[in-house]
Amino acid sequence: xxxxxxxxxxxxxxxxxxxxxxxxxxxxxxxxxxxxxxxxxxxxxxxxxxxxxxxxxxxxxxxxxxxxxxxxxxxxxxxxxxxxxxxxxxxxxxxxxxxxxxxxxxxxxxxxxxxxxxxxxxxxxxxxxxxxxxxxxxxxxxxxxxxxxxxxxxxxxxxxxxxxxxxxxxxxxxxxxxxxxxxxxxxxxxxxxxxxxxxxxxxxxxxxxxxxxxxxxxxxxxxxxxxxxxxxxxxxxxxxxxxxxxxxxxxxxxxxxxx
Length: 259
Known about the structure:
Blueprint: E1 2-9, H1 26-38, E2 45-46, E3 55-64, H2 76-79, E4 86-94, E5 106-115, E6 128-130, H3 136-144, E7 148-151, E8 166-177, E9 180-187, H4 194-206, H5 213-221, E10 236-242
Parallel strand pairs: 3-10, 5-6
Antiparallel strand pairs: 1-3, 1-4, 2-3, 5-9, 5-10, 7-8, 8-9
């Protein structure tokens, strides 16, 4: 049977989602915990393969097992074998036509940025930081150039394995809450480092180093070397994953402090 789970994790202390030879991925921890319940090694596939230091307020994954267990075993049982910083939120049995990665029709990320002269202490590793004042209105004017279907090669990591750089960005918006900026991105899919690369360029606009129109120029040039450097992973969270309605799965979690 195929089981789908929702989970959350703190990227600090993991080398990203994907399994690594030294066993430092979230996937490694989850597969080990599931094996403790199922009695067998079971590959787990996630909706998004987050990088080292990137967090998931909401991640979806699936795995196949040949043993029957109550659904609570895939939640509380698995959690009892997981390390701190990662937890399964819910589990359901689902059709074998479902695939956590390829069935997803929309994903969303939020970058949480402290905009203050002094770096974070309490939230270090959980929030990004930029020391100079940022103009949110200018950032949103720049973000407007990103909306729609574009070739995002200017914001694509060299090691990206996506077949095409063309994605449809449906939301790009920055909101200020005191000294915190909440930067939301929603699309049919994302390229490797795409959000962090967008953040780097948007921050240059907010700081007055570049004009908002620069984002449109970068899209047209399709040259990664002309855009800003990749921004810190610390403040990036996977927040929403949407599937076709007939699967009847949650799209997000209400547990997150920055929701």
